[in-house]
């Protein structure tokens, strides 16, 4: 592969984050000196006109058509390899409800959950809980709810962030404890990253704005923490395989005080901003930021039809 397109932008609520990710990836790949890199900003949900000779696409789109199998299907038809999972895995992972179902069918532990319609007076599970739009990322429309007084606004905020046709919001038990993420690249789990916030909640500001959020590695701790890392890695690979992912996927976890690990969701097009976790984990293995991008690009493929 010599001539590479980097897709960024898109029409989802995560457009600005995607533009930052795409810019970083394009600059990183170009710095290696072995690719002709063509940054392409998408402004609608279809393939743009591309220069001749594009041999692969690095997908730095987040959410919407760029992550739900749409762009993947379009590139399959063109026979152009792309980074990340294929159509089916993208469709499942982008829908948190489908993800929950697939994880449970494959005995991968996930937090207890239920569904709520707009205007429901009470939640389907006990407090504390988290309300989520089923198909958005980057913590858009997500709220932690501690009591009944907070419930109506949280549910409404989730629906405001959703497509008008979306019938239900996902309601998930808030697992008290610690938050982790594990990147699976190819068939390998990279070092687990613990996310430590001042408030104990990892929302939009904590992800993209705050400089107080800390990212720590379990390998720096003792034997018990290293055992936890092995457990997280195994479950992450199990989740990756259950959804039939390939390439790169980030698996997010909560871990209870008793050490029980629960998969929250899978992100098949993880961010590459200055705050993003996959590059942090990859660099922990000894790779540079550019080498992390290169490794992911090397796994580009199309679906087998």
Write the SSE topology.
Layout (H helix, E strand, L loop, with lengths): L2 E7 L5 H17 L4 E7 L13 E4 L10 H9 L8 H8 L1 H10 L7 E5 L11 E4 L10 E3 L5 H10 L7 E6 L4 E8 L2 E2 L3 E4 L7 H5 L5 E4 L5 H20 L5 E8 L5 E7 L9 H8 L4 H10 L7
Parallel strand pairs: 1-2, 1-3
Antiparallel strand pairs: 4-7, 5-6, 5-7, 8-9, 8-10, 8-12, 10-11, 12-13
Helix pairs in contact: 1-9, 8-9
Task: Write a structural description.
- It is a single chain.
- By secondary structure, the protein is α+β, with helices and mostly antiparallel strands.
- The chain folds into 3 domains: 3-83, Rossmann fold; 92-109 and 176-294, ATP-grasp fold, B domain (D-amino Acid Aminotransferase, Chain A, domain 1); 113-173, ATP-grasp fold, A domain (Dna Ligase, domain 1).
- Helices cover 32% and strands 23% of the residues.
- The chain contains 9 helices and 13 strands.
- Strands 8, 9, 10, 11, 12 and 13 form a 6-stranded antiparallel β-sheet that branches.
- Helix 1 (15-31) packs across helix 9 (289-298) and helix 8 crosses helix 9.
- The two termini are 22 Å apart.
- The model has no long low-confidence stretch (mean pLDDT 92).
CATH topology assignment of the largest domain: D-amino Acid Aminotransferase, Chain A, domain 1
**Name of the CATH homologous superfamily of the largest domain:** ATP-grasp fold, B domain
| Text of the CATH class of the largest domain | Alpha Beta
Percentage of residues assigned to helices: 25-40%
Low-confidence sequence ranges: none
Structural class: alpha+beta
Count of alpha/pi helices: 9
Mean pLDDT: 92
Report the strand count. 13
Task: Give the C-alpha Rg.
Answer: 19 Å
């Amino acid at each position: 592969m010599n001539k590479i397109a980097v897709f960024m932008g898109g029409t989802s609520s995560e457009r600005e984050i995607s533009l930052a990710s795409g810019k970083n990836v394009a600059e990183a790949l170009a710095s290696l000196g072995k690719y002709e890199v063509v940054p392409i900003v998408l402004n609608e949900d279809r393939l743009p006109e591309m220069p001749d000779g594009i041999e692969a696409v690095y997908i730095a789109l987040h959410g919407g058509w760029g992550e739900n199998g749409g762009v993947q299907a379009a590139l399959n038809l063109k026979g152009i390899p792309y980074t990340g999972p294929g159509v089916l895995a993208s469709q499942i992972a982008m829908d948190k409800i489908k993800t929950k179902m697939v994880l449970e069918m494959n005995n991968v532990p996930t937090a207890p959950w239920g569904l709520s319609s707009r205007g429901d007076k009470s939640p389907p599970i006990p407090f504390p809980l988290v309300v989520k739009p089923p198909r958005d990322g980057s913590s858009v429309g997500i709220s932690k709810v501690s009591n009944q007084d907070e419930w109506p606004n949280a549910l409404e905020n989730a629906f405001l962030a959703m497509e008008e046709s979306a019938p239900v919001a996902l309601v998930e038990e808030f697992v008290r404890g610690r938050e982790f993420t594990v990147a699976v690249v190819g068939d390998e789990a990279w070092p687990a990253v613990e996310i430590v916030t001042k408030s104990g909640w990892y929302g939009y500001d904590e992800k993209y704005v705050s400089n107080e959020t800390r990212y720590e590695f379990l390998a720096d701790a003792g034997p018990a923490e290293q055992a936890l890392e092995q457990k997280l890695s195994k479950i992450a690979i199990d989740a990756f395989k259950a959804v039939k992912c390939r390439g790169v996927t980030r698996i997010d976890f909560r871990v209870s005080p008793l050490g029980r690990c629960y998969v929250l969701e899978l992100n098949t097009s993880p961010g590459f901003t200055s705050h993003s976790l996959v590059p942090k984990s990859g660099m922990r293995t000894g790779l540079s930021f550019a080498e992390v991008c290169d490794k992911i690009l090397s796994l580009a493929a199309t679906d087998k039809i």
